[in-house]
Design a protein that fits this description.
The protein has six helices and no strands. By secondary structure, the chain is an all-alpha fold. The chain has one domain: Cytochrome c-like domain (Cytochrome Bc1 Complex, Chain D, domain 2, Orthogonal Bundle), CATH 1.10.760. Bound molecules: heme C. The site of heme C has 22 residues, from helix 2, helix 5 and helix 6.
């Protein structure tokens, strides 16, 4: 019986994972410009809606870009440095992306979620 219990736990966990991590995805690269970079490099963790998936927020502390309080406390320079150098579970993108791209990702992509995007 114990085994069945753990199988159920694993199944519930997988269901949560796939639900939380796959909100309706639209093609961000259709928006053009820097969004193609977001789509390629950032979307798998931060998602189309900028919120990160449930599990990502919970375990990896992915910030919710649509949170006004978070946006108000996040300066451009802090975010640029975080993207360039990486921050804990987030890899750094220095070398992979140009400085201009990193600045544009903050100013265009991250800030587009503020004020909170309509779902
Ligand atoms: C492997 C998953 C992953 C990828 C890919 C990723 N991030 Fe992150 N990102 C994270 C995590 C996890 C955090 C939370 C870091 C922390 O505070 O511990 C984070 C934090 C951030 C923050 C907030 C930093 C701060 O100081 O609060 C910004 C902005 C950000 N990411 C932008 C991006 C951009 C832009 C890209 C694409 C170039 C990207 N991320 C790609 C996982 C990822």
């Amino acid at each position: 019986m114990k085994k069945i219990g753990s199988v159920v736990v694993v199944m519930v966990f997988c269901a949560l994972l796939s639900y939380g991590c796959n909100p309706k995805q639209t093609a961000l690269s259709d928006k053009g410009g820097i969004w193609a970079v977001y789509d390629r490099e950032c979307r798998k963790c931060h998602k189309v809606n900028g919120k990160g998936c449930f599990v990502g927020r919970w375990i990896f502390k992915i910030p919710n870009f649509t949170n006004t309080h978070w946006q108000d406390n996040a300066s451009d320079s802090r975010l640029i440095i975080a993207i360039a150098n990486g921050k804990r579970k987030m890899p750094g993108f220095k070398g992979k992306l140009t400085d201009e791209e990193i600045v544009d990702l903050v100013k265009t992509c991250v800030r587009s979620y503020y004020p909170p995007a309509k779902q």
